Amino acid sequence: MHPRATPEFVPILRELAAGLREGDEGFHMISVKPDPGPYSSSFVHNEPWLAYDAIQTWNSVNLIYPLVSHDYGLTPVKPVVMAEGAYEAGFEYKFDVTPLWIRRQAYYSYLAGGYHSYGHNDSWRVLPTWKEALDAPGAFQMSLLRKIFLGLEEWWNLVPDQSVFVNGGKTDGDILNLASRHKDGKWILIYLGSKATFTVNMEKIKTSKKVKASWINPATGEKIAADEFTNRGSQVFSTPDDWEDSLLLLEAA
Q: Looking at the structure, do residues 164 and 113 belong to the same domain, yes or no?
């Protein structure tokens, strides 16, 4: 559903939800995409029919992390989807929505504990070039994101944890450095929104005395083995020189 995001519409939403449930016998999940937003939890989170929260940040990239983090911590616990940011190649956002910005929006969403949906200017406007837009760089890189997360052992046990950083983490502004880990310490995944030098608490890896480090290029999927370390104390890392943004994967060796 796609309503105006104001409390006076909640009774209408309840009736719509009841109709949807009756029509498909509860087969599909029901949510609300707020417009103008920015987040559904501000007015319907406690509704029993709401399966997951949704967020619309449009061009406010700086809102992704705080809003997803907010919804991640709510009770009752419900998934949160960053449902609409800036669309790739869009021209109305006051900045160029490059593949780099597409990657940043997506990784911010996931590493804050949510999910993410991608859009392209030509697709939603149904321009004559909409078919070509299916193969846009940002779209391809979202498929790489999927492969990267599916390659993690028990990816669904991801826990956002900025205390992984001893220093160099960044959770405010447009360009962030964010960390997450497996709930039992089997791996750590860190996203760096630009070139960075930072320090990691290696003791966040709990299941092995050794830690294997790898760099992953979010733009290409290229994976480079870095080194092996003990999971004791802290370790300084610097992103590869010629990458726009980077992922660091630390795994129990």
A: no
